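Complex 289.
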Amino acid sequence: MLIDGKAIAAEVRSEVADGARQFERAHGRPLGLRVVLLGDNPASQSYVRAKKKAAAEVGIDAETLLHPASMSQDDLLALLGELNADPAVDGILVQLPLPDGIDEAAIIHAIDPAKDVDGFHPENVGKLVLGEDTLEPCTPAGIVEVLRRSGVETSGAHAVVVGRSNIVGKPMASLLLRRGLDCTVTVCHSRTRDLAEITRQADILVAAIGRAEFVTADMVREGATVIDVGINRVEDLTRERGYRLVGDVDFEAVREKAAAITPVPGGVGPMTIAMLLHNTLRAAERRAA
Ligand code: NDP
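Predicted structure with NDP bound:
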């Protein structure tokens, strides 16, 4: 089965649009999202554009605050202070990576946890690990929605997560371990010995590595569910822009073995954005409550 991340994301977005309308009726103002971008990294610019467009489509008042890469850390902290204090702002997202010279951790710490729609603030990360209700990081939360809405059995399943980043691998492992999902979780990384041996044991394999088509068919068990988080540009001179996007999974070969697989593009990517909108609604509802 090809998991249609686009279709599932459209479902989530339409639910958020309903919630956003209700919120506006109840509170007399739209949901507010502010996306802060420093510098002109082309990938970041395109992510930020996509986030703003998707937010506007569900009725969120979304604004991108563009600043030069030379913005000082103090000025960025001051800006976050203003956004934290603004009652019309429900969600704040600082697009990563930040330019050299800015302490990413200090910036993440400075976002009000109640407005931290990326779910990266240590308070939210702590709650996630404790299994408490919180704003969850968008990519792993989106993967959970994909599994749920595709009817993938998670209870007792062996989930193998390849990648241990703070934005994908680690929170993914925490979510899969949670009561209700109840996976047995193994986390792998660049130092893992006999990686293929471990990935072959996965009922659910999440690839969040950042290496084009790294997961080959021999690394996948027949009948596994394969979630491909990777977004990698590979040169393709037949395309006008000179590249195409591929995942961390050798899609054509692995789809022959997998019971279910997410494509790239059109899998996890659209879910990440949908969950950002979902988190903006949740942040607003929680603050209003
Ligand atoms: P990071 O670079 O932060 O982490 C990559 C992880 O993969 C690390 O833990 C690293 O191990 C591990 N790794 C690298 N090489 C190997 C290897 N040979 N064998 C096993 N593990 C390896 O990346 P992110 O987690 O931020 O992102 C991963 C991918 O997902 C990227 O392609 C990114 O673009 C994409 N992404 C997609 C999103 C979406 O919405 N679809 C959102 C976020 C990311 P170690 O820790 O030992 O270095």
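The first strand starts at residue 32 and ends at 38.
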